[in-house]
Design a protein that fits this description.
Shape: globular
Radius of gyration: 21 Å
CATH topology: Jelly Rolls
CATH superfamily: B-lactam Antibiotic, Isopenicillin N Synthase, Chain
Bound molecules: fe (ii) ion
Structural class: alpha+beta
Number of strands: 17
Strand order of the largest sheet: 1-2-14-7-16-6-4-3
């Protein structure tokens, strides 16, 4: 059954909209002006994204990270996505994949999806994963004190359809509006000054609560970038990651979207016309946010609910990667996994997000370390001091 992405929100969310509206001066007028500007800008931006394709996604070599020009850094920040080549040697990355395959073979009962042909594994602490996180810690882009966050991996077989990762944003659903700290990250958008929005401003993020309802499997750690390390060669159409490569525009649009409703419903072309949208805060719906497990999931933008993103043309596959290359995307970037995998080889990646050192995250990795020593991981697999610190280990114990 299709999930209803626009409906079923409790009536109290009308109050949330009213509260937000009353906390910014001239909200209706300023939000409407901003909304119209954003729709105008998106017309141009989405056209460029669709034309630019995969090659317009920033690619840099790991060894050049220290010498990027300011304009290159600006470009990476605006897109919110970057491919970093050769973080790990090809042979080493391939070796880790072999070790993961071995592990799965000798532990066939591990949790994973799809159940009949597991490809996305609920495994966090295999030797390969521990080595990859602690070995050469990739200090991605603007991060200087990385912590280590245990995440999963996938080995996707060719030919199998994959529809479990449609376009979405991780790390908080209704919390983006409901939690006042999280909402602060988007204050410039809500006040109408959307061009001033800085997705990289850490102030609100540090205290933002991304999980107000304690849903299972929802990450509470603060990641500046999500990321993965390629363990195999994977090109577009071979089951790779897709992104909407403009985090400023997607944030501006997604955050203001709940305050507007279309006046027309049938004609998709008419839906794109700003004239056909009206300010409306009388309904509890936050399009793309939906109830799940006692809390809320999303944002999950769709062409029907978020027509101006033109997702059918603007979800761009990341360029071809080789083993040892990494891909990072800002935690607000809309991303998905290709449904098709037309390649001949497995598409294998290990998820390794960038987790900066903050009080909240330090507490998280300490809890994580306790789980690790409870027998799921082997401390001797963490090979160096930086790696040990990154995973919250008291260095003297190990
Ligand atoms: Fe995701």
């Amino acid at each position: 059954m299709e999930t209803d992405l626009n409906g079923g929100m409790p009536p109290r969310f009308v109050d949330l909209k009213q509260e937000i509206a009353s906390s910014y001066p001239d909200f209706e007028q300023r939000a409407t002006k901003a909304w119209n500007e954003i729709l105008g800008a998106l017309e141009e931006v989405t056209k460029n994204i669709a034309e630019g394709g995969s090659e317009s996604i920033a690619q840099v070599n790991f060894s050049q990270l220290d010498s990027l020009t300011p304009s290159k850094i600006e470009m990476i920040k605006r897109k919110g996505c970057v491919v970093i080549r050769d973080v790990v040697d090809d042979a080493e990355a391939r070796g880790w994949k072999d070790a993961l395959e071995e592990f799965i073979k000798s532990n066939p009962d591990v949790e994973g999806v799809p159940a009949d042909n597991k490809q996305f594994f609920q495994l966090f602490w295999t030797k390969s994963q521990v080595l990859a996180r602690s070995g050469r810690t990739p200090e991605g882009v603007d991060l200087s004190t990385p912590l280590s966050y245990a995440d999963r991996f996938r080995i996707r077989r060719p030919g199998i359809r994959w529809d479990v990762h449609p376009p979405h944003v991780d790390g908080g659903a209704i919390e983006r509006w409901q939690d006042e700290h999280f909402r602060m990250c988007f204050a410039d958008i809500l006040s109408g000054d959307w061009r001033a929005h800085d997705p990289y401003d850490l102030e609100g993020r540090l205290n933002a609560r991304s999980s107000l309802y304690g849903r299972p499997n929802q990450s509470t750690v603060f990641r500046t970038f999500q990321g993965w390390l390629a363990l195999s060669e994977t090109a577009p159409t071979q089951g790779t990651l897709k992104v909407f490569p403009d985090v400023l525009m997607s944030n501006a649009y997604l955050i203001l979207r709940p305050f507007f409703r279309p006046r027309v419903t049938e004609d998709p072309k008419a839906l794109l016309d700003p004239e056909n949208w009206a300010f409306d805060i009388a309904t509890p719906e936050f399009p793309g946010i939906f109830p799940r497990d006692g809390g809320f999931a999303g944002p999950r933008p769709t062409p029907a609910l978020h027509p101006h993103l033109r997702l059918e043309q603007t979800m761009i596959s990341v360029p071809a990667v080789k083993p040892g290359d990494m891909v990072f995307w800002h935690c607000d970037v809309i991303h998905s996994v290709e449904e098709e995998h037309t390649g001949k080889e497995d598409s294998a990646v290990m998820y390794i997000p960038a987790v900066p050192s903050t009080p909240q995250n330090e507490a998280y990795v300490k809890r994580q370390f306790d789980d690790f020593v409870k027998g799921v991981g082997r401390p001797e697999d963490v090979v160096n001091l930086l790696g040990r610190r990154a995973m919250g280990a008291p260095v003297e114990v190990m």
